[in-house]
From TrEMBL, chains A, B:
It holds the Pfam family Sacchrp_dh_NADP. It comes from Pseudohalocynthiibacter aestuariivivens. This is Saccharopine dehydrogenase family protein. InterPro entries: NAD(P)-bd_dom_sf (IPR036291), Sacchrp_dh-like_C (IPR032095), Sacchrp_dh_NADP-bd (IPR005097). Residues 150-394 form the Saccharopine dehydrogenase-like C-terminal domain. Residues 5-146 form the Saccharopine dehydrogenase NADP binding domain.
């Protein structure tokens, strides 16, 4: 069966998704991309054509849509005959796009939890705030909805499930480490939308420890991690979607998320936050202009997409898992290393977008093959990890493991 | 002769000027204060009345005026019968207020060079850019115009002139040091209008060395200074009005200005500047709001006037002068130490406003007594320093000297 794909969003991640869908369009059918700004969609299709990325001759069309309007999205799904929707637009769109999928029967994939634009930071239990409330609705409609199918959340959830299936009898701790050891050459820039980026860190930091939610302040808990390829890197505990779903679905008592930050990021973040420049609340200038400070900061920062051509270095993202195996304590690190320049050469995006976008396409491919077409809502760790990791290997994100036997590539 | 005074401006310095004029109103006549915002003028008069500051019963009236309109200022000078105008409004008003004084014959006093709102930073030769172009006009009209009669510029110019008159046969170097060792208790705040404050430091740093202008970057040249009362303090070379006039009028080959900055200030300044948040050029947010980033920063920072009640600690500002005296090398430091809490107790302002405002009133008093009523334009170092320093002593800003004989109070 021909499965037309509709990509929602036209940022850096959407660019990666478009290229990877094109490279595998024999498995899909027609490709469509839609966002608020038609020209951005067209630029992405131009980039696909420039690289001659379509595996077989086929359709790739651009559309304008207000994805906050679920009726408009449903209409577009029908008119494009799409049966797989990959939502890589803003985090504010999940609920409206999901509604359109339930209404039309199309499969739904996203890469991050839904957020309410009016809230600075969503608090745990993250998936239970919005997505999981619609589990029954999906199941009743027979709609496949795969949540958090980026790298983190996404691939790291599959790593956790793989560890539970193959490497442990009992898991005590999962530390998810996300290090970007790359350099964009700018004095300061965020790797994705500054508004979403800063919002992640302006609230409390939540972790799952001793089977309960624990709260800390941002940059309160830092730790140096000795990692393959990128070496020793300092990362800070922060909240992240998958801490919630992994702890619940795999019943692990300690799940923490650690993100690497350089001194520059911490300094800029601290100044902006303390001065009120990360605020979502409008201020009025002496001249009477009402404006949201964070929107001004966003307007001044480099467009994350513009960083890609000069980006060098590597990312290292993975799970350090501790527990018991055949009566003995065990620790493994399951991870991927991606290269910014390689990503740019292949799909015109930097490594952060690449690692987020490729897994969503892998999920779409597994829906197309039927392996993951589960006709209900699922987080990644609820699905068989091996087909996914195998697919990722072929798509450019191989899986490595470091355990008592050393450091090696895993094949599936 | 009764000399009515018109104060232009209603910020922290105007508050000090108002109190000090009130405390000496027997020497003046009626007092008037005018700014764009009438309520701010009224609040200042209320504060004068609250402290029962008027030495003798008299008039103190508030007026609304757009001081960018010289005709409106001239009209107000005539209607108030003012013969001395103390301009302590924004640095953008000098030329229009001076025009009104020339037109009406009133004496003019300011505390800083004129700035063009469209320029980020005026470059040397500062006084020659605007003020000195009108020297002949003032002389022809017989108008006394005293430029830069704050602390720095102002009192430090008088210190330089005193050094030239009494302590040196030849001056080789003058280093003007401005240290605020006080604490406002906020995470970050500027001591005066953030817009003016940051603008001072966003351009190149100009100093007069080897009888020519030398350019450096901000925070490029820092030096620790061992100072009385406040101890060792790090200060950074920066441009300042008086470097120009002192070097020209006293023919000194090396004049440098050093301002003390804490680590916090430097960090915040560096982040804001590098991100473009100190820019005067409007940006447009993704939502289409056009706004000047610096105005947003200003709207978020604490109102400098609000800092006064909690301000503690001292300022130390003065001139380190090096040269020759009776055939031998000599070095002296002529300086004042002011206390933030004392300033607040007396006039309801912090020490930075106090040291800037009191000298302007001392100058007005010397115009009223005739000692400085020179009927032409003059910078402070062109006028006899002793009457000024004597007046400052009685007004709360005594002069100290540290030389080969030790550290002591000077009396005049």
């Amino acid at each position: 069966m021909k499965r037309n794909v509709l990509i929602v969003g036209a940022g850096g991640v959407a660019q990666v998704v478009a290229h990877k869908c094109a490279q595998n369009n024999d498995l899909f059918g027609d490709l469509h991309i839609a966002s608020r700004t038609l020209s951005k969609c067209k630029m992405i299709i131009d980039s696909v054509n420039d690289k001659d990325a379509m595996k077989t001759p086929g359709v790739f069309e651009a559309h304008q849509v207000d994805a906050m309007d679920s009726g408009a999205v449903a209409e577009l799904i029908r008119s494009t005959d799409a049966t797989i929707v990959i939502n890589v637009g803003s985090a504010f769109l999940n609920m409206t796009v999901m509604t359109a999928c339930i209404e039309t029967g199309a499969a739904y994939i996203d890469t991050a939890i839904h957020e309410d634009p009016a809230k600075i930071c969503e608090t745990p239990p993250w998936y239970a705030n919005y997505e999981w409330k619609r589990r029954e609705e999906c199941e009743k409609a027979g709609v496949t909805a795969i949540l958090g199918a980026g790298f983190d959340p996404g691939v790291v959830n599959a790593y956790a499930k793989l560890a539970a299936d193959e490497y442990f009898d009992r898991i005590d701790e999962i530390d998810i480490i996300d290090i970007n050891a790359g350099s964009h050459g700018q004095w300061f820039a965020t790797n994705f939308d500054p508004e979403i980026n800063f919002r992640e860190f302006t609230g409390e930091v939540w972790s799952w420890q001793g089977s309960k939610w624990v709260s800390n302040k941002m940059f309160e808990i830092g730790k140096d991690w000795d990692l393959p390829v990128v070496g020793t890197q300092r990362a800070y505990m922060t909240g992240h979607d998958e801490v919630h779903s992994i702890s619940q679905n795999l019943d692990v008592p300690n799940v923490r998320f650690w993100m690497g930050f350089g001194e520059r990021y911490i300094t800029v973040f601290t100044v902006l936050k303390n001065l009120g420049l990360l605020s979502e609340k409008p201020v009025v200038t002496a001249e009477g202009v009402e404006v949201v400070p964070l929107k001004v900061v966003k307007a001044l920062l480099p467009d994350p997409a513009s960083l890609a051509p000069e980006y060098t270095g590597k990312t290292c993202i993975g799970d350090i898992v501790k527990g018991e195996w055949q009566g003995a304590a065990r620790e493994v690190f399951i991870y991927n290393v991606a290269d910014h320049a390689d990503a740019y050469a292949e799909v015109g995006s930097q490594g952060i977008s690449y690692t987020a976008g490729v897994p969503a396409v892998a999920a779409a491919m597994l829906i197309a093959t039927g392996e993951w077409d589960v006709k209900k809502m699922a987080n990644i760790e609820e699905l068989p990890p091996k087909p996914f990791l195998k697919q990722l290997d072929t798509l450019g994100l191989p899986t490595h493991i470091r355990d008592e036997k050393g450091d090696r590539l895993l094949s599936f």
